[in-house]
From TrEMBL:
PANTHER family registered for this protein in UniProt: LEUCINE-RESPONSIVE REGULATORY PROTEIN, TRANSCRIPTIONAL REGULATOR AZLB
InterPro entries: AsnC-type_HTH_dom, Dimeric_a/b-barrel, Tscrpt_reg_AsnC-like, Tscrpt_reg_AsnC/Lrp_C, WH-like_DNA-bd_sf, WH_DNA-bd_sf
Species, as recorded: Blastococcus jejuensis
Pfam families the record matches: AsnC_trans_reg, HTH_24
Family matches, as SUPFAM superfamilies: Dimeric alpha+beta barrel (SSF54909), Winged helix' DNA-binding domain (SSF46785)
Protein name: Lrp/AsnC ligand binding domain-containing protein
Swiss-Prot/TrEMBL keywords: DNA-binding, Transcription, Transcription regulation
HTH asnC-type domain boundaries: 7-68
């Protein structure tokens, strides 16, 4: 079980500033948030050490990169075969993510490809796994809300803790 790491308003402000200005260094982040550069560096290091910040790579829009056909695939797998299916899924380049789930299915996958023919091939590849008993897919027509974390973090941020020096967010 993952231990909950309590974020405060400064942590969330730093994460929001990084989301808005992903190439900003500690000095620029200190200007944006209104806290000392050393505080920014220490907070970011703490967020990294706690596993809250997992990387600084670019966010990639797979549709803009030429992979506009996306689908969600629910897999029913053989009892006790989660490790086997994980290994098989990792070998499929068009598989963006997969989650073990509760309910009628066991694994929910998000896949992307450049064509419907490519989607058909991914579905064939998924069903080649000896661990997969059945699959069900739905094609995504459009994205209504992109993956996001800031509204959740902001709703649960602990008040205070370093906030006295923080500037109010710009309207």
């Amino acid at each position: 079980m993952v231990e909950k790491r309590s974020l405060d308003a400064l942590d969330v402000a730093l994460l929001a500033a990084l989301r808005e200005h992903p190439r900003a260094g500690a000095l620029e982040l200190s200007r944006i948030t209104g806290v000392a550069r050393a505080t920014v560096s220490a907070r970011l290091q703490r967020l990294e050490d706690a596993g809250v910040v997992t990387g600084y790579g670019p966010d990639v829009d797979v549709t803009a990169a030429g992979f506009g056909v996306q689908a969600f695939v629910t897999l029913e797998i053989a009892q006790g075969a989660i490790e086997d299916v994980q290994r098989d899924l990792e070998a499929i380049p068009g598989l963006l993510e997969a989650h073990a789930t509760t309910g009628s299915g066991d694994v929910l996958c998000r896949v992307a490809t450049s064509s419907h023919e490519g989607l058909q091939q991914i579905l064939v590849d998924l069903n080649r796994s000896s661990a997969v008993v059945r699959s069900t897919s739905v094609v995504a027509l459009s994205q209504l809300v992109p993956f996001r974390t800031l509204p959740l973090l902001q709703s649960e941020a602990a008040p205070g803790a370093g906030r006295s020096a923080m500037r109010a967010p710009a309207p």
